[in-house]
Fold these 3 entries.
Entry 1:
Amino acid sequence: MKRITLGAAFVLACATAATPLAVGAGAQAAGHDGTGRATVLQTPSTHAAVVKAAQKDSAALVKAVGLSADNAFVVKDVLTDADGSTHVRVDRTFKGVPVIGGDLVVHRNASGAVTGHDGSFDGAVTVDLTPSITTAQGQAKGLAAAQAHNAGKGLDGAKAAGSDLVVFIGRDGTQHLAFQVRTTGLKKDRTPSRVRSLVDADSGTSLVSFDEIAKGSGTGIYVGSVSLPTTYSGGSYLLKNPNNGNYTTDSGNTTTTGATMTDADDRWGTGSNSNRQSAAVDAQFGADKTFDYYKNVMGRNGIWNDGRGARSRVHYDNNYNNAFWDGTQMTYGDGSNNAKPLTEIDVAGHEMSHGVTENTAGLVYYGDAGGLNEATSDIFGAGVEWYANLAADVPDYYMGELIDLNGNGTPLRYMDKPSKDGISYDCWTSDMNSWPDTGKGNPHYTSGPLNHWYYLASEGSGTKTINGRTYSSPTCNSSTVTGAGHDVIEKIWYRTLSTKLTSSSRYTAAREGAIQSAIELYGASSQACKSVEAAFSAINVPAGNAKCSGTTPTPTPTPTPTPTPGTNAVVNGGFESGQTGWTGTSGPITNNSGRAAHSGSWKLWLGGNGSTASESEQQSVTVPTNGKLTFWVAVDTDETSSYTAYDKATVTVNGTTVASYSNLTKTSGYVQKTVDLSSYAGQTVTLKFAATEDSSAQTSFVFDDVAVQ
């Protein structure tokens, strides 16, 4: 990533584009920002208006970033921060010819002044725009390159859809006049293929080819019994969410789209694979939870950021052992012998997140960018699983662990140590960007370093047990990393993806962008920033210009002495100093008078939203000899059920739940809880308070006077 900050800010001429988007006037501020830099959730009409206004001013943006009038920008998206800053994502053309690899994100402050931009290439185009071969020749060579790309096995029904003249910026920065050819067809395993090939328009040489297709109530195979919003029409129920438009079809074990699934009584599935609705429950619930995750946690209104839902196809083909996003829909096969549908919720979140990547950074599917693309889907797939917090699919740092695609009880991928699958990489190397996207350069393998970064930045290095699973995460530089929490790191990575990275970004750009995003969201001296920085160093991505403050340069910090018994090891356990000592969601630590504190005026108030939400706060604590955790908690609820836990809260130590609450455990005022931590004596552990709420009827979980002593 090349970050440029303008010495003399260029103010756009159009007052409309320079006016900050008003929170509340067609938009809502996402609730995760502690410094006024969160992305604003835009309604579809507001988003369309902001993009239109930015396109109107695109000539001014071209001038502001120092390009000549021969260049033009096509605005793809505009994200707005709560402080009025905007991030305009653009594609670039030169004399009307698209520049592949020339896409940028242009940053403006609340006054409309351009303050800088990110992108891999922002220089002058110098190639001659007159091709030496014909369009037909370019298309033929592109078709041949696509066939060769598929490991020499070819594509069934291969068809080249046109041949466009472009300027292509290669991995080494070399400029080529090229024909861009997109070839569609079916691979031998019946996976749809959409290969993009770049053919040199002078020599006819193939420059690069890569595949753009990345691999009511109901009871699902993996999600268990869940609520499903459906649509009643014509005397039956459709598996279509009326709130976001997500819907699910049954492909009937063919490669067609199939029909939207229907049911007479709005009771879907049995949890058994023999019932065709069961896999559909998994897919629909996964799509809905992913939509909610992006909307409620990240401030993004669906894949395209315009409120539209997407289709999920289940029972695709016969014995089809994969799942994929093809640019318009999610598709799930039933696995070997049609016995193991690939509809687990982290896989659903993974596939839908490919759509988000396609419509933000647009990371190409080769080199470093390909690995970043795949890891992004793994990260947010895991994030969706944590957000859903299902008892039937306990959140973890694995991908597809319930599907058992390998047939031996192992997951598809491990995030704590990616190389445990035998093919992925734990550490980044500088030559990874030059590898082909097949063999050792397969993006599923080069995603390993960023998956490793996510785990380290979230949980830290070493061995620990989280939600009953034991992880052991080494570092590539023998350092010790302290985690900041997965929810914090996911927000930082989404901001990096949506406001910093472009189509050909490398791992070094990911480090720069993530540290800058951490600074913008949490501050340069925050634990979040330090965890991001240390974790990138731990996977061997070298330091650049972006740096946190207060970072200790020694690779392994001096061990913290075990506290003297009787001294509270928790920093700011009474919350009277606000956020001090705690990392997590912005807002729950409050002196709001809506709920009383146990003592003083500040407390940790989780929940109380009356809408779908996920909140948490955590800190690292060193446990003294014979240590005990104590805290006071008060639970009140507007839920009326006496048997269903709709809203839940947990207290965890190193991921192990030591106390849990729900709308079924309301209290009469504050009650004290004591937990024996003597087994952790001398260890530094992560103490975390977390809560999730469903879509209606609030439940408040109020914690105060937390102590470990």
Entry 2:
Amino acid sequence: MMTEQKQNVQEDTGQKIRPILKRLNNISQDIEASSVMSRDGINLASVMRNNVDQDRLGAMCASLLSLGGKTASELERGNLKQVLIEGDNGCVLIVQIGDRAVLAVVSKPTSRLGMVFNEARKIAREIEEAKVL
């Protein structure tokens, strides 16, 4: 029964977050996809292409945040705020949403990173302030 309750809570959370992610993706053609996941990598809501394995993305983001946090701590850089991965075909920005979730934003290689950073932070704050997590 508890598992069914958890699933219902996740579905409800996803229904509240998905419209916010759609708005983020529509802000710029540079943003290709976005996803909100728990800090342990469980997908809560996504607006992505069909060929993206959301569970795998969640697990990778959780690992990256863990490693990034340890690196920032070890090098005395303070609390981790975000992780940026830049590849030939674009970027993935991972931003914390409070202490319970993260936002991953996938952008094109031609994207203006300043705009992507700014919009991702605004959306992360909006989700945190909405208290849907």
Entry 3:
Amino acid sequence: MKTMATRSQNPADAIEIELIRSLYTGFVPSLIMSIGFLICGSLIAWRTGDTVLGLLLIPGALSTALRLGIARRDAARAARPRLGIEEARRLERRFAFAYLSFALILGLFGARLFLLPVVEAHLLMLALLIGYAAGVAAGVGLRPRVAIPSMVMAVVPPMLAALWGGDLLYVATAIMTLAFLAGGIGSLRGRHARALADIGRGLTFASLARQDALTALPNRLALREAYDEDGFEARAARLVAVHCLDLNGFKPVNDRFGHPMGDALLTLVGKRLASSLRDGDVAARLGGDEFAVFQRNIGHPDEARLLAQRIAATIGRPYVIGEQALEISTCVGYVVSDDPADDLERLITLADEALYSAKRSGASVRRYEPAAGARAAA
């Protein structure tokens, strides 16, 4: 993406990603429920001697292992800052498959048990069902498309079996349990709606804190976050470059035509700068007429030189604001790094040295070289 604004998802996608991430925060309750089901289910199957219950424990154990394995394996991927919407949805589908599989087995196990005349086991099963529904609401309640089917599949079949028996107390128990389930689903939907609003506000404030108000480019904080998100391993595998630039002729425009014209010019410069970049590169306004670009994942230093030249050519084209034609130019200093431990501020300092060397010599593009300082790009 060409800027942090376009690199990030649109607001709806960003909110959905945060909600999907919430699925992976309830591992411990899931572990407790899984252990509880295996222990209590084994006791119930042993106590009743029912073959069907014993057989249901097998897929129950498998779905439990699958559910915990997926939750543990995918948690780190879901937490990645640069998680995209398509990958997030794939993670959710895997999570939902395992989660719903366990809910189905739990519901079938409970339904079978409530058809058997083993009153003492019914109480234990009811405790499991209530605990499971509460855990679902607490753990995955921000994703109703996962939570609601899970609760329905686990709770409704056993309660229908309880109703089938016809005993008045069992009928009352089933009706009350289903009523609590319906109320819980309603509360869950309300919680989800509030979470949507809260997450949306949080993302908006976070975006504003990382965005230059004038040009809509990322600011210095967002540039650092992009550099840090790139990660040590990614920078170890490929080269990165940092470019610094400022505008030649901007101050006379500002002095002659006033700050509104200068602001409009900076806005157009920001748009041109963003349009010059590849997907994955990040342009930021550092302040005034100073900008920086983080160019990630390059295979050869020539790629950095070509980008610097493209930026200089793009920004140097004439501008028309209202009825006024304006001309400015830019100097670009850049540094290429193969050291994954390099700090962004150090790279900005080196690129800035190359920039001022270019301005002194009249060059439009200059690369920083550790051995000889800054030299003109070939």
